[in-house]
Specification:
Bound molecules: flavin-adenine dinucleotide
Order of helices and strands: EHEEHEEHEHEEHEEEEHEEHHEEEHEEEH
Oligomer: single chain
Number of helices: 10
CATH class of the largest domain: Alpha Beta
CATH topology of the largest domain: D-Amino Acid Oxidase, Chain A, domain 2
Strand content: 25-35%
Radius of gyration: 21 Å
């Protein structure tokens, strides 16, 4: 392909962020060329829990945006994407954690968040796999969805190409953008009206100076999954434990949270050191996905740490009994995250937008982010 081709929009990166921008552009009637340097998706968008997790977002605009994204995921059922309305349960075994859940549930109606506090007995009815010993209570939220990330991303790529004027260029790395020209390795060149750089954790190939100035960090997470659970056994809702209260921004509104943070810092140094909290989801094959940890920048090693997996599984055993807990796969994923901003956009050239770093919420937020961006310019 040596002659110059044309499209209204070029998107670099076919992870969930790039797919969201491509889908929003295509729905608006634009022709799109969507590049990814790998022939099959390999980035953070296929390495995650598949949790669409509005309950983790700060009440207000972020939570509302997560719900708009959620609605887009539900639309994708028509494209054959498995999207399961499972909801979530945060289960707690410590009095200070229980206080946070009670405070959050009491404030939730005023914050516009749909959730309820459950007694231990009600929590066990919702999530029978929870360990009943020492269970104090739980927070139930109905808004969370489960998807199977590798399958969802691959299907969404195909859906865009089959339904809209979207040209997929998979296995093609974009090496240079000088608007209106987008150039790929091998000399392929496109003339476009607008370009989006949704390159995930690649900060070096395109606009390295802008990325260096943006202050974005890389974060590595270790993950595990079991095989399919026997007899079609299901976890039910996504599960989170008490450590998760310190992880997501939603609970920052609680005056009772600092006590949990202080106790965790004093008594669980290894969990703090590796940024561990424990989440559980289950995919359509019945496999249970378990994680995770958070290691940043210079601490990121290509090699996984056995101690991290052991700490995660120790914590998991305190809150959950799986029929078949054997680990069938282990992997890590790296995402881009800004220390203070929920998402980063920059305009290095007129008509070219960098759109990256949704942190640990890219599956939850990307469709809403892309929709809002397009609405903002039209
Ligand atoms: C272990 C883990 C668990 C997570 N769990 C959840 C969860 O349950 N729920 C949730 O909401 N979020 C979760 N997240 C976060 C979420 O996965 C990320 O925020 C999201 O996937 C980031 O999407 P992305 O498109 O920016 O990145 P990626 O998926 O990494 O995609 C970027 C793509 O750009 C391509 N690319 C880069 N440079 C070029 C170039 N020059 N030319 C062509 N292609 C290029 C890459 O090949 C890659 O495919 C998790 C993340 C991890 C790592």
């Amino acid at each position: 392909m040596s002659t110059e081709q044309r499209a209204d929009v070029a998107v670099v990166g076919a992870g969930v962020v790039g797919l969201a921008f491509a889908w929003a552009a295509a729905r608006g009637g634009r022709s799109v060329v969507l590049f990814d340097r790998t022939p099959a998706p390999q980035g953070a968008s296929v390495r995650n829990f598949g949790m669409i997790w509005p309950i983790g977002q700060l009440p207000g605009p972020d939570y509302a945006r997560a719900l708009r994204s959620r609605a887009r995921w539900l639309e994708l059922r028509a494209a054959g994407v498995w999207v399961h309305e499972c909801g979530s349960v945060h289960a707690v075994y410590r009095a200070d954690e229980d206080a946070v859940l009670r405070e959050f549930a009491a404030r939730a109606p005023g914050l516009g968040v749909a959730c309820e506090y459950l007694s231990a007995a009600d929590a066990l009815r919702r999530a029978p796999a929870l360990n009943p010993r020492g269970l104090l209570g739980a927070l139930h939220s109905p808004t969370e969805l489960a998807v199977n990330p590798p399958d969802a991303v691959a299907r969404l790529q195909r859906y865009l190409a089959e339904t809209y004027p979207v040209t997929l260029r998979l296995g093609v790395a974009v090496t240079h953008i000088e608007m209106p020209r987008v150039r790929a390795a091998g000399g392929e060149t496109w003339r476009v009206g607008r370009a989006f750089v949704c390159s995930g954790t690649d900060f070096e190939t395109l606009f390295p100076a802008e990325f260096a100035a943006a202050g974005i960090r890389r974060c590595k997470l270790q993950m595990m999954r079991t095989g399919p659970q026997p007899g079609g056994w299901r976890v039910g809702p996504h599960l989170a434990g008490g450590l998760t209260l310190c992880h997501y921004r939603s609970f920052e509104v609680c005056s009772t949270l600092p006590a949990v943070r202080a106790r965790v810092a004093a008594t669980m140094p290894d969990y703090v050191k590796y940024g561990i909290h424990v989440l559980v989801s289950q995919n359509d094959r019945g496999e249970v996905i378990i994680g995770d940890s958070h290691e940043y920048d210079a601490d990121i090693s290509p090699f996984d740490t056995a101690e991290i997996d052991a700490l995660v599984l120790d914590y998991l055993r305190e809150m959950l009994t799986l029929p078949d807990p054997r680990i069938a796969a282990r992997w890590n994923g790296v995402y881009a995250k800004h220390p203070t901003r929920p998402f980063v956009t920059a305009e290095p050239q007129p008509g070219c937008t960098i759109a990256v770093a949704p942190g640990g919420a890219g599956m939850t937020m990307s469709f809403g982010i892309a929709d809002d961006w397009w609405e903002g310019i039209e």
